[in-house]
Amino acid sequence: MTEKDTYKTIAKSIEPTLFKEKNSKFFGYAFPVTNEDEVKNHLVDVKKEHHSARHWCYAYQLGTETITYRANDDGEPSNSAGMPIYGQIQSFDVTNVLIIVVRYFGGVKLGVGGLINSYRTSAQISLEAAKIIKKTINKDFLITFDYKNMNTVMRIIKDKKLNIAHQKLELDCQITITVRKKDSSSIFEIFNNLYEIKIKSL
């Protein structure tokens, strides 16, 4: 079995979607996120935009190999909002994504079943509106070497079509390369076997 080295996420934030159920309005948002600070910032922005709403429920998932997630009901009955939203994140098999569903109460109680269905549907519509893309899981390596070995290093980078994330080319040179996970061991070995060139995983 080959090790999984790709994941799915959304390309960019979407325009808010609207789902209505018995006079309640559910505005759905989807954001690509890479850390919890970004999650907090988006929540602050959405709450400002919908400051008169009753509930701002959300779920997010971060990570590719080590997964962290959170589902928040924000005052709705337990597991009636956050988990149905998170269920759609799992259903669409996406990560590094935040879904926020803002609810304006319309005067008619929906009941727990109605809430679960409404939050799930709103999250689903939001993810259907998003462009889902596939990305590779990458590893970063730092290569350090003397300037005189520049040609050797650059030739390998060019031959192997490696992506340079950062470089400092002086007397002592440093290049950070980003390598697809499945190729990382072989690339590490190539550089590790070279005289006067050091490589380490970041």
UniProtKB/TrEMBL annotation:
<dbReference type="InterPro" id="IPR036956">
    <property type="entry name" value="Impact_N_sf"/>
</dbReference>
<dbReference type="InterPro" id="IPR001498">
    <property type="entry name" value="Impact_N"/>
</dbReference>
<protein>
    <submittedName>
        <fullName>YigZ family protein</fullName>
    </submittedName>
</protein>
<dbReference type="GO" id="GO:0005737">
    <property type="term" value="C:cytoplasm"/>
</dbReference>
<comment type="similarity">
    <text>Belongs to the IMPACT family.</text>
</comment>
<dbReference type="InterPro" id="IPR023582">
    <property type="entry name" value="Impact"/>
</dbReference>
<dbReference type="GO" id="GO:0006446">
    <property type="term" value="P:regulation of translational initiation"/>
</dbReference>
<feature type="domain" description="Impact N-terminal">
    <location>
        <begin position="22"/>
        <end position="124"/>
    </location>
</feature>
<dbReference type="InterPro" id="IPR020568">
    <property type="entry name" value="Ribosomal_Su5_D2-typ_SF"/>
</dbReference>
<dbReference type="Pfam" id="PF01205">
    <property type="entry name" value="Impact_N"/>
</dbReference>
